[in-house]
Design brief:
The protein is an alpha/beta fold. It folds into 2 domains: 87 residues, Rossmann fold (3-Layer(aba) Sandwich), CATH 3.40.50; 134 residues, 3-Layer(aba) Sandwich (Rossmann fold). Helix content is 40%, strand content 17%. The chain is built from 10 helices and 11 strands. α1 runs parallel beside α10, α2 crosses α10 and α6 crosses α7. The radius of gyration is 19 Å and the shape is globular. It binds ligand BQF. Ligand BQF binds next to α2 and α10. The site of ligand BQF has 12 residues, from α2 and α10.
Length: 293
């Protein structure tokens, strides 16, 4: 069993980005600038946005955090999005999800200029990804692909079983892995809450990508010997022994699954840090495009 260290890989990549930004600024080119909109005070969202702001500093980016209370109206939020679209100082921005229930997330996503959509959630970028054109790729799938690449995990001709069909992880990671190339050239099965005989399908997988958001869902009986398991789950589970009052729980029963695996990602320290790092790569790309370099 080999552990896939997403924390270390993301640190390496952030250093590579910082070196490139240092070269840019030495040439007199303005550093990348990421903005984030955070609505309300959800604990998870607060942590995720703080991770993103901290990573910007590590990469040598500028960052701006715009905070609004959860009673902001949809029209007010859309106006803020349009301001960022038009602000020439901002290379890319994100609107931290989830949003309060009275706001139509899809409408917000579709208001972001696709050229500043570093989350890769706009239908234009989703479409580009699905047909293999350049564009901003959703950060978690891009992070998973980068881990497979850096650990030389061959996906060609392999059976990948994705559990979960979200627009942000399941669907785009399935798209990327079925494309030509390596990582790519995989035979991909996408399973979800209506799949029958799920363990029968996952037992046929060379690579399992668990992205359903149910702690400990993937158990040892669902995994064949020598499989690679990528755990995308990051559920906060109450834990009185921690000073934060919770711990992060993956979708995989790590303790019992890990001994059967060739490779496995831990939670925390697996896919999560790579998600942040892909957002940084998208922001660097946005800045370079806007500066014509
Ligand atoms: C780690 C996210 C669900 C819904 C909205 C590092 C993150 C998480 C874990 C992180 C996530 C999950 C993010 C670890 C961003 C990943 O050390 O294991 C980083 O910050 N994430 C998000 O922005 O929105 C979400 C999960």
């Amino acid at each position: 069993m080999q552990l896939i260290d997403g924390k270390k890989t993301s640190t390496d990549i952030k250093q590579e980005i910082a070196a490139e930004v240092a070269e840019m600024t030495a040439k007199g080119i303005r550093r990348p600038h990421l903005a984030a909109i955070l609505v309300g005070h959800d604990g998870g969202s607060e942590t995720y946005v703080a991770n993103k702001v901290k990573s910007c500093a590590e990469c040598g980016f500028e960052s701006t955090l715009l905070r609004f209370e959860d009673d902001i109206t949809e029209e007010q939020l859309l106006a803020e999005v349009r301001k960022l679209n038009e602000n020439p100082e901002i290379d890319g921005f994100i609107v931290q999800l989830p949003l309060p229930k009275h706001i139509d997330e899809q409408r917000v996503i579709e208001t972001v200029d696709p050229d500043k959509d570093v989350d890769g959630f706009h239908p234009v970028n989703v479409g580009r990804l699905s047909i293999g054109l350049p564009g901003f790729k959703s950060a978690t799938p891009a992070g998973i692909i980068e881990l497979l690449r850096r650990y030389n995990i061959d996906t060609r001709g392999k059976h990948v079983v994705v559990i979960g069909r979200s627009n942000i992880v399941g669907k785009p990671v399935a798209s990327l892995l079925m494309q030509k190339g390596n990582p790519g050239d995989a035979t991909v099965t996408v399973c979800h809450s209506r799949t029958t005989n799920l363990p029968e399908i996952t037992r046929q997988a060379d690579i399992i990508i668990a992205a359903l958001g149910k702690p400990g869902f993937v158990t040892a009986d669902m995994v064949k010997d020598g499989a690679t398991v990528i755990d995308v789950g990051t559920t906060r589970v109450p834990d009185a022994t921690r000073k934060s009052g919770f711990r992060l729980c993956g979708d995989v029963d790590f303790e019992n699954v890990a001994p059967k695996c060739e490779f496995i990602t831990p939670v925390p320290g697996g896919v999560g840090p790579m998600t942040i790092c892909s957002l940084m790569l998208n922001t660097l790309q946005a800045a370079k495009q806007r500066r014509g370099c």
